[in-house]
Amino acid sequence: MLCNERFVMLLYDRTNPYMDVNEARKKHFAKRNSVQRIPPTYDALEQHMKRASALELGNSYCTRLMYACTTCPCKMPEFSALVLPLVVHAALRSDTIGRRDVLSCQFSSFFHHHVESVTSNTGGVQKGKEMVTNKAALQVMLNVVDFLRTQMPQKSFCGREKITPYEKNLWLKLNFLEVAQAAHYCGAHFSALLFLHLHCEGMQSAISEDIGVERCQEPPLTQVSSHPDAPSLTTLLLQVYSSLGDRAGVEGCVSSSRFVGTEARALCCHHRGQWIQSFALRDVASDTFGMVDGLRSLGFFNTVNAFLSNSPKFSEAQWEAAWRLGKWNDSSFEDRLVEDDVSRWDNKDDEKFHCSLYLALKSLHHQDLPSLHNHILTARRGIANKLKLNRVESSSFIYPFLSQLQMLSEVEAVSDCISCLNKFEQLNTCISRLTASWGRLDMKSGVAAVEHHYWEPVVAARVSMLQAVTTTCKIHQLKSLLHTTLLNKSELSREDGIKGGVGCEWAVAVAKLLDPSLPPPAAWLTKLEEAHVARKRGDVQLALRSLQPLIDQFQLQENMESRHEQVVCRGLTLYGGLLMDSRTRYPQSIIRDYFMRAVTMLEGSKEGDNTEVLEETYYQLASYGDQLYRQLHQHLESDAIQAKRSNIARSEEEVERLEGLARNCSDLTERKELARKLTILKKNILIDCNMLKDLEREKEDYLSLALNNYLKCLIVSEKHHLHIYRVVALWLQNLTLPRLNQMMDELGKRIKSCQFVPLLYQLVARLSCQRDQHTSFHKVLHNLLERMSVEHPHQSLPVVVALAHAHADDRIISAKSSRKHHNKVVEEDRVQAAKSLVAQLKKSAIREHVQEFEKVSMAYLSLANWCGTMDSKSHSGQQVKIDRAQPLLQLRDLCYTAALTRPLQIQPSAHYDPPLIQGWDSTCSLVGGINAPKRLTVKTSDGMKQFELLKGRDDLRQDAVMEQVFGIVNQLLAQNNETRERGLSVRTYQVVPLSQKSGLIQWCNNTQAFGEYLIGNNKSKGAHKLYHPKDYSSDVCRQKMMAAKEMSLEKRYDVFQDILEHFHPVFRHFFLEQYPSAHEWQRRQIAYTRSVATTSMVGYILGLGDRHVENILIDRSTAELIHIDLGIAFELGKVLPTPETVPFRMTQDMVDGLGVLGVSGGLRGDCEATLGVLRSCGEVLVTVVEVLRHDPLHTWTLSPQQVGRLQATGDDDSMGPVASASMAERVVLRVQQKLAGVEDGFPRTVSEQVAALLQQATDTANLSRLFPGWRPYV
């Protein structure tokens, strides 16, 4: 490049002495020369050279330039690597002399030699072929392949008339299995998965004749099992998924492939945390490396050290065991260091790191700071070198290096303490800084969000470095910090789901050794952690024995220091919980002696920082009270108690009969006998009645205990904010109890109203004007809703006003009608109560806001019922001018009302400053439908415009409740560690009912219907027509299903099989088209898989039906699914004329987007994780769903109009709208059964339930019975 610069400058000025074009430009500017005499900048010159090179590639100079780029790497390697993809692309694009075959041969040969070199057993690389294992060279070649995949060819490589986007992968004729091997070798795991996907597709095409239609629902990896490359494909897939730490991928490979050996099964057990099975399989396979890896994962480093003590070579595991065990003076390590010079090691960065860390910690132990810094520098260089030589695509690849860098930084931080041992003030400052720094990375902050195997080495290194220091320096503060770190290590290990607390015992045992040299609270904390560890293992008795001396010591101390009270209360709460688990004492005495004592101590404490302990104590007490309440409630509803009640009733009837006989009996002896029988019978009745009364009273006491402490927990903190759902459920289920209403009135006022906002629908559903019944409940509820409306008007007013305007549509239509006489609208009691609440709010501080919002709501309702110039010929997408007389167009620059369909975060401070509505566009768009929904454009004060869908003559209240459930599910998934790490969630959108028949829906931008991509808007084009032009069209498939509708099930099945044979899935191409880069492709496929899993499980629980291809949207930017039109729920699809026979949509195209593992891969694990959370938090969902049971306006069957719209049949006479309490009870009961895992009358585990649901959803026989309009073949 330097020669080129000099040449260019001489062209502009032969007398120019400069070698740098930028310096020459400055001088020419200073001389004020003309523009023509000023040379270009360096960047412009570089770009010009690149363009010139690319232009020359189509001519005869192409070969020369390629030769120059490949033969002069020493002179311009970066430029050669940069221009090579352009060179190859230009050569292929202007291919007139068979360059594609030549280049394909060369590239294939390179990747083939790489695979041979890597997989050979010779232990080295053949001479002259070192380049094929050079990671830098491999990355250059992979960059060429990646660049070509982004370029659309000018002609089809497959002889098609129309070029498909898939042909971007066919510029070179490559064996993608070998390319995937090279990508995996370079650490480009996402690229490896993409290339494996492409190779698997090629394998499917090669043996397509052997894959019958009966195997169409099998994962692609299973379908290609007869191909010669299948074993290699499976092996590499396992390696890639294992490198990514993808447990679901590993399990999917094992379950989908028929070429799974002992090592693969052992790897699967390893990822599941099934250590005994893993070690057994490793032993069978004589896999020493795997055994050592498992021991390291479990933290058995003494065993690792003993196991490898006689090994001729020191491995990475031994160096790690050395620094973890503190082998600072072991002679074997000294001898090893003499034999090898660590600084000269090549391609052993992992071993270099652990050895360098060991040497650094050893230097720390001996206080040799210069040597320590040298070893840290060596370790950092090794990390940088590995990052440079690998093709980083996944953040999971970087996490181990971030952990290592964090460890090195903390070693330096501890060394700062050593450097100032003789300076007391500086030493205290260093230790304080170190403690604060480590405190910011405790379990409750960033570390908790990182997986166990990333943060555990950091904590272990802290322990090792502190042990290295404290053995030579008797510094009390460092010993205290070591003790705290050990307990933190144990606590964090207990939280790990895979390893189940392995390593806790070692940390507790070492902490015990430090207890004698530390103040008393240290020993107490160690005992507490020891009890927690025993409880984690399920050994309740050992936990009780560990805590018993501590409890006895607490009881002997009368005047306890306030700083020790938190430890005491934690011990009392834990001991009480253990007694509850063991059931060795009566619950009342446990609550009195332990829980209440802890609460009393904390409430009377003068310490101001006991909020966390107090909140946890309240929560534990509330949980146990709730548990006892449920047990008693179930017992009182059991068959035994019902039989006892029946027996009491029969006994009372018998008493009446005997008393009648006694009155009419004249024989004295017989009267005495009757009197004796009556006495015994009455005593038995009294005993049974008193027992039932005691049980009811005890149940009410436990109910009050639970509700009281739940409320106090919510007052103290918002950590357990999800328990507000349980609070509301308990209150609404027992609204006749004055004690509970008084409790809600007194304590509810102290809870922030923002915590009640998510339950607005549930609370508003209980409004009533009938104050003669449950007077205290309605008063408390009214006051709560008024407070919520005043403090959070943007969330509350739409719900309250929508109920008050429930029948506003009828009045608007009646006012426009020419008829003089119309039916009078009868308002329900709840609607009148809502109007009363609105009237009360008009006298409050938000009266102007309420008045403005009512105007906006009525304006929306007027437009929703306006037809204007629309007629039957109006089509979707048509622009319509809104009548100027519409009230909505008269509203401008609103002062209080924000856009209703823009999500607004609830603010605990109750302070809101959202963008306000400035107006609406005067035109709207039609989106299709018999009720003429309109897409409006609303303008807000922040300068933004957004779309919103206004629907009239359509009840959106159920859609709103469904979206509320989706939002709650997202909260539950975010609370759980596993689902949070997986990133599971459900895509939601705003639904705002304006009345009983109208509402607003948030417009989902950058989305398209699932069917629009696959079969096009006209149902005969789309991706299916593009990739398989000879297949049946979607309309032909539907016609075939319609023709077979009245046939037998066997005939319908045969017809459906024929359709599947001539209608192949293509949705995998969506990801290749939309996301060409491997990283984005894998990321979006994972997002799609997670979205399918969550929506399927939630949809199953709620009985969501009518999931045809137009009711599912896909976000083109994220590949997530969005379900719309949620009106067919709670299994109403099963009562249609053609019943729905599947729990959710899992057709061949849905499965096609999941990758080579199909439903056996990540989908199954995501489904199990989602359903596990839903089942564990089932009561929250039931609380939300129960709002519909108390909604007198909700109908539990479909109207004839709905049936006609869904399935155009003539058999609708038997169906009509029914508001039935028994139907509502059935719906709630069915939801509870699903959440309990009850299917076909038998309870199932989560994995069994998911397996059964996936089998039902993908069963071809079930799909063949669906309504043709559902398009089960898509």
UniProtKB/TrEMBL annotation:
Top EC class, one word: transferase
Single GO molecular function: protein serine/threonine kinase activity
FATC domain: residues covered: 1242-1274
Compartments it resides in: Nucleus
GO cellular component, one term: nucleus
Enzymatic reactions: L-threonyl-[protein] + ATP = O-phospho-L-threonyl-[protein] + ADP + H(+)
Coiled coil: 641-678
Domain of life: Eukaryota
Keyword Isomerase: no
GO terms, biological process: DNA repair
Listed name of the protein: non-specific serine/threonine protein kinase
Species for this entry: Petrolisthes cinctipes (Flat porcelain crab)
